[in-house]
Automatic annotation (TrEMBL):
One of its GO terms (molecular function) is DNA binding. Residues 18-98 form the RWP-RK domain. Transmembrane segments: none annotated. Residues 1-24 are annotated as: Disordered. It holds the Pfam family RWP-RK. This is RWP-RK domain-containing protein.
Length: 123
């Protein structure tokens, strides 16, 4: 029992000698109300966080707290269209070729259908 007290006393003494710990910032410090967040819905969360002077995770945490889904979505298709290389007429025709072939019925397809009907009706 005496050894337990001594070790506890040593721990407390060591704790007094060390520098005081910096206090952790409270997560509730930045409690943005939904009406404040609504003013930034037209922009990405990253920009909203920058204007609010907080990290993006703080904005996300506030949205989660109030069950808000951030409505802004970057238009990915716009970015893809900018980076896409325009194709020549032959390139476009080649890209459309498989779809055109699938949509058209050929003689071979008709014969296959007839054979399948015959097999199905005889079985």
């Amino acid at each position: 029992m005496a050894t337990a007290r001594r070790t506890a006393t040593k721990r407390m003494a060591r704790g007094l000698q060390t520098a005081p710990k910096t206090l952790r910032k409270s997560r509730r410090k930045y409690d943005f109300k939904p009406n404040l967040l609504e003013q930034y819905f037209h922009m990405p969360q990253k920009e909203a966080a920058l204007l609010l002077g907080v990290a993006v995770i703080t904005v996300k945490r506030n949205c989660k707290r109030y069950k808000i889904e951030w409505p802004y979505r970057a238009n990915k298709y716009k970015y893809k269209a900018r980076n896409q290389v325009p194709l020549s007429e032959k390139g476009l025709a080649f890209m459309k070729l498989p779809l055109d072939c699938i949509n058209e019925e050929t003689e071979g397809d008709i014969q296959t259908e007839v054979l399948l009907d015959l097999i199905g009706s005889s079985g």
